[in-house]
Amino acid sequence: MYSIQKVSDMLGIPGVTLRAWEARHGIVHPLRSVGGHRLYSEEDVATLRRVKRLMKEQGMKIGEIAHRLKREKSTDRTVPRSAEVPPLFSIASEQERSVRIDAHIADRLYPALVAFNAEEANRAIDLAISLYGYEMTFHRILAPLLVRIGNDWESGNLAVAQEHFASQLILQRFMQVFRSLPVDPGMPCAVAFCPPDEHHQLGLLLFSLYLRKRGVDVIYLGPDTPYEGLGRLIEMKDVRVAAISVTDPALIVPLSEWLDRTTAQYPELHVLLGGSGFGLQGEPRRQWERVSYEDDVDWEAWCLAVFAPRQ
Ligand code: B12
Fold first, then answer.
1. Pick from 128, 153, 179: which residue ends a domain?
2. What's the CA-to-centroid distance between 43 and ligand 1, angstroms?
3. pLDDT confidence of 76, banded at 50, 70, 90?
4. Which domain holds residue 152?
């Protein structure tokens, strides 16, 4: 597996471009390390190499290439199911096997969700958790599935009721695990939210789960959170960390204004900003003391620095 830096060096494609191709066009879906960093497989690297070649040799645009790759994938899917999913444990490499198992679970889960079949969907999720544990299940199976569902809704292939049902069922499973994880009383408190009008909460959930697994008491406020009252919450609970996720870049200006006020008022507060909204911004990023951007930091190292016991 390769880090984003390694892939960028190998292929001469900037990291920001790799992230944009993933977020906007779904060219590849690298796995995530426990620290939340992208891990590219050989197959991902081969796909990216091919994308680069198509751009250079045939002058194709990234959108056209994404369509071609999708078309090719759906043509592959016309192969009869029995041929497509061979017996789960007969495949050579570890990585191939997990890709097959992922596909097998997703092939059960997706139809169950769009058919409003909660029982079957929960069984498929239980199977995934028993195979991978909950953290890997969320990163490998459920997060990519939510992205697929979001895409299918946006392209008109799913009705809003199907999208809502599927998203809600998966979000409930996230919350179930989240609530069941113990809080370490020695750890400071964190708050996690998306600003007003931001409804994309998946990245925030993954990060919150990551913090909660480490015993951090995360107050998860979720999507579309008004700024009013957050200062009071920070004081009441002695919040040390604010994790904020933004997908729509238009929301960054009001967020910056809130950050100006809040970091001045609570100089001890650490803020971690994440979400594709920041990657899409053309202008240079604002600098604040104690504010970091998730794609510049190693989650593990950042947590160690921020949550290290005070001397
Ligand atoms: C799923 C989805 C939805 C779901 C959201 C479900 C949910 N509850 O979260 C639904 C269907 C509700 C939805 C609605 C809309 N969506 Co939408 N959606 C998507 C989709 C398919 C995937 C986004 C996603 O969840 N990615 C997976 C997560 C895990 O990735 P991520 O957010 O980048 O997070 C990663 C990192 O950035 C990081 N991270 C993120 N936040 C944080 C925070 C911290 C603190 C840290 C440390 C890390 C971190 O962690 C993650 C893992 O590394 C994308 C298209 C795509 N393929 O990307 C469009 C997309 C994001 N949506 C889009 C739009 C426009 C909308 C809508 C306005 C509807 C529309 N198309 O008309 C609405 C309304 C949303 C709103 N007002 O906020 C646009 C956004 C364009 C833009 N830049 O503004 C996209 C890109 C689609 C497109 N091509 O146009 N959407």
1. 179
2. 25
3. low
4. 84-179
